Amino acid sequence: MWRIPKPETTALEAFDTCRAGITLPDLSQRLEDIRDDIGLAEEKFDAAAAAANLLQIATSEDVAGLVTAKEMEQLYTRHMARNKSRGRAIYDKLMIAAPHDQCPFCGHRNVSTLDHTLPKAQHPALAVTPICLIPCCKDCNHAKGNLVLASVEEQLLNAYYDDIENERWLYAEIVEGSPPGARFYVETPEEMDDVIASRIANHFGSLELAKLYASQAGRQLQNMKGALTDTYDAAGIAAVRQDLERRAASFAAISLNSWEGALLEAAASSAWYCNEGFRA
Q1: pTM value > 0.85
Q2: Residue 260 to residues 70, 196, 216, 232, Cα–Cα distance (Å)
Q3: Which of 4, 79, 95, 147 fits 18 for a cystine, CB–CB 3.0-4.6 Å?
């Protein structure tokens, strides 16, 4: 769940680049005839996304009754997503926009595809609109594709429009056992807007991020076992806690809501874990 800059490439720039590869005269003419509709659709999307109300954008089976959803989907797949196509440079530029190649939906897995914020089959006018395309991992793309949203509160977070990085909302707690584990959960500040708080919780739950982070946390706790054993044997529980707090602060300085930072903070706060629980 990371913020990334909005693409600078406009919908019309992408549309014109992609349709330049069309050789069928009839389709080429019909695409030219809907050019203004593509620009208008981008404007409506931008305003709705900025207001966090994409549900107000009506679905459609075509663009202006001239170009079908299937034809717009093919414009994207054949002339933008396909290797060596005319629009591939735009596709690649969008793909590399995520910092450190990390999926902005989960903040963990590597980017491997582009996600249409609004499905191209239901919103064909946005099929090649850059601000509707977000780089993400295939797992998040697949999970998001199965969701049916019925309210504004159920909208997933949008990496181009939603800034949630300045407030803390991701936490964890150590699960005592052998080996130790961790549970991750969302706790939003009381002063946070109710809608964005609901969207954060829905995003976290819909993409099953607690399960993803817990799986990685178990491995991380095992990886720290040797170093913490040395620290404990040399200087005791206080030194272990101090080491974990230092690591947690380092992660928090980069991202308040990284799963690694939440895990380390939880470990430092657990008397059981610091007092040789890490050996379990």
Answers
A1: yes
A2: 42, 23, 9, 21
A3: 79
